[in-house]
Design brief:
Oligomer: heterodimer
Strand content of chain B: under 5%
Structural class of chain B: mainly alpha
Strand order of the largest sheet of chain A: 5-6-7-3-8-9
Distance between the termini of chain B: 32 Å
CATH architecture of one domain in chain A: 3-Layer(aba) Sandwich
Radius of gyration of chain B: 19 Å
Strand content of chain A: 15-25%
Number of helices of chain A: 12
Shape of chain B: globular
Distance between the termini of chain A: 15 Å
CATH superfamily of one domain in chain A: P-loop containing nucleotide triphosphate hydrolases
Chain lengths: 317, 262
């Protein structure tokens, strides 16, 4: 499907025939310290400081080895073997203020670890990271005021009370001034069409309705940076389109920086110009959709092909 | 601080609203809570049908002791339930949500649960308290009333501290630890009798390791005029200091969570 060539001296075929810059990016391993990528970015965005600067972030987990079988299970009671899993291996990237970035990769690639580090939930072992001039894992309270996080698979709405009650609580949690709160709420209600839903308890909402309420909940305090973790998972076509349109609008009108993790490639296609591909804890590619899209294959096929080419797919080809 | 109280009030109002969605369930739960404690009370009652005293304490005095201890426990459980069931919060990832909000972690975890059903137990405790007072012949004065207030404060804080330790352990195990129930539900059961009756070893343990006796046995002696030293009355406040190491351990757990992830 793609021409393969020997431009790069590794076994990695050159699928894209891109510029020298891009071939360098493909050499994930050669990255360390001040990256060429970072230099590339500073060249283009010299005038203002980036929203997110992540450099050489490493994170590993210490997990108990598990083996099957009753006998083994008994044995581990007394003697446990631990292994270290490298979740993130020198991850570096820069994201500008107002950018919308798709962060993709197969399951277990390190996407949520990255999001957790960026949102201050986890502390990395190595590397530096600043978001809007602050270090996420230092001074948690002052940092998280300016970010919004949507975990697509977990709700932040109170199950049994009308949605508006959850919002009122958020108003107190974030100490949003009354007027700001009302302005934001009004805007979100009209854009996401929440009018009737506000009086409904969260448990009675459909998944699509809930997701719209969920996104509104994360934006009430007007964050500069929004993390969306699989925001369209399980939604029907109409809801998906509504959510996408809203995100685009939020980004355009408020300049909210959006980082989107998803497995839905149409999300990526509709929303982001730039994608960062991560696999086995390393940034494998950082570019735009057109650069990876070749020929007539659907976006899903393109990405599947991409995963296979980096040998990061969980199922073999 | 005023903000925190206001926010906590908001949390409580949401819990009450949620509860009103399931009125029958709430009522049954509260009645069940009442019955559970009532059963324990029956145990004490039947015991005293056979014996006239346990140690140096009469029936009414034991009931009084039990009622105060039960009230302390129920108050702590009502407010601190979020820490009691903290393992679910960690496993479900709710704690990640707590971490991305610009408020104190303890305040948010406290707000996550509010067990109003424990009102059943509190009513039981109140009934026993009145019952116990009538038979134990205490001559009430200022210091005596303060002693009861101190016991309630100290005991509630102590139990809360134990919940906090249990919650902090979840950062290491992810699962709730049944062993913690020894120190909460177990202590509640043991605490129906003044600690002194269990012997020297137990009283030492409950004085210096986990200071149950400071909120129960010693002030009770003062309350019942068995000992006269006024410092016995303020010992419960000393027990409240248990919160300091508990809080330290909690902070340690949180830091570990943030650098380990799950």
């Amino acid at each position: 499907m793609w021409p393969s060539g020997g431009i790069i001296d590794t076994a990695m075929p050159d699928y894209f025939g891109l510029t020298e810059y891009f071939t360098k990016v493909l050499h994930g391993k050669s990255y360390g310290g001040q990256t060429d990528l970072a230099r590339y970015d500073t060249y283009y965005y010299q005038e203002e400081a980036a929203m997110i600067m992540m450099e050489d972030i490493c994170k590993s987990y210490h997990v108990a080895k598990r083996t099957g079988g009753f006998k083994e299970a008994c044995r581990t009671l007394f003697h446990r073997e631990y292994e270290t899993i490298r979740a993130l291996d020198h991850v570096s990237f820069t994201i500008e203020d107002g950018e919308m970035v798709g962060y993709i990769g197969p399951n277990g690639a390190g996407k949520s670890s990255t999001i957790k580090i960026l949102s201050g939930i986890l502390t990395p072992e190595e590397g530096t990271c600043t978001v809007d001039g602050k270090v996420p894992w230092k001074d948690r309270v002052s940092y998280v005021k300016d970010i919004g996080v949507v975990f697509g698979q977990r709700t932040q709405l109170w199950w049994d009370v009308p949605v508006i009650d959850s919002y009122e609580l958020l108003k107190d949690i974030y100490k949003i001034p009354k007027e700001t709160y009302h302005n934001h709420l009004e805007e979100l209600v009209s854009l996401l069409n929440l009018g009737e839903l506000l009086k409904t308890p969260a448990r009675q909402l459909s998944l699509g309705q809930r997701m719209r309420c969920e996104i509104a909940a994360s934006l009430l305090h007007g964050p500069k940076l929004l993390f969306l973790d699989e925001p369209t998972i399980g939604l029907d076509a109409v809801s998906k389109l509504a959510v996408r349109e809203f995100i685009l609008r939020q980004n355009r009108d408020h300049g909210t920086t959006v980082i989107l993790t998803t497995h839905d490639m149409q999300d990526i296609e509709a929303l982001t110009h730039r994608i960062i591909l991560i696999g086995k804890g390393r940034v494998l590619m950082d570019g735009n959709l057109n650069q990876i899209k070749r020929g007539t294959g659907s976006i899903d096929e393109t990405v599947a092909e991409l995963y296979r080419s980096y040998e990061i797919a969980e199922v073999g080809s | 601080m005023r903000d925190a109280v206001k926010l906590y009030g908001r949390y409580v109002s949401i819990h009450v609203k949620s509860l009103m969605q399931y009125k029958v369930s709430f009522l049954l739960m509260a009645i069940a809570q009442f019955m559970v404690s009532f059963n324990v009370f029956l145990g004490v009652f039947f015991m005293f049908q056979r014996f006239s005293a346990v140690g140096e304490f009469t029936y009414s005095q034991v009931v009084l002791c039990f009622s105060i201890f039960l009230m302390e426990f129920s108050l702590a459980e009502c407010v601190g339930r979020g820490f009691d069931v903290f393992s679910t919060m960690v496993r479900k990832g709710e704690f990640d949500r707590v971490l991305v909000r610009p408020r104190g972690l303890i305040l948010q975890v406290l707000g996550s649960r509010f067990e109003l059903t424990r009102i059943g137990r509190m009513i039981q405790a109140l009934v026993m308290f009145v019952y116990g007072i009538r038979g134990s012949g205490i001559v009430w004065n200022g210091p005596k009333i303060m002693t009861v207030v101190f016991m309630l404060i100290g005991g509630t804080v102590l139990f809360f501290g134990i919940f906090l330790v249990g919650a902090a352990l979840c950062f290491f195990t992810l699962e709730g630890l049944e062993i913690m129930n020894i120190f909460t539900d177990g202590a509640r059961e043991y605490g129906k009798y003044p600690m002194g009756v269990y012997g020297k070893r137990v009283i030492q343990l409950c004085t210096f390791i986990i200071p149950y006796a400071l909120v129960q046995y010693y002030p009770l002696l003062y309350l019942l005029d068995k000992r006269r030293e006024p410092w016995l009355a303020v010992l419960p406040l000393l027990a409240a200091l248990f919160l300091i190491p508990s809080y330290g351990f909690w902070r340690f757990g949180v830091r570990r969570y943030q650098s380990a992830g799950s």
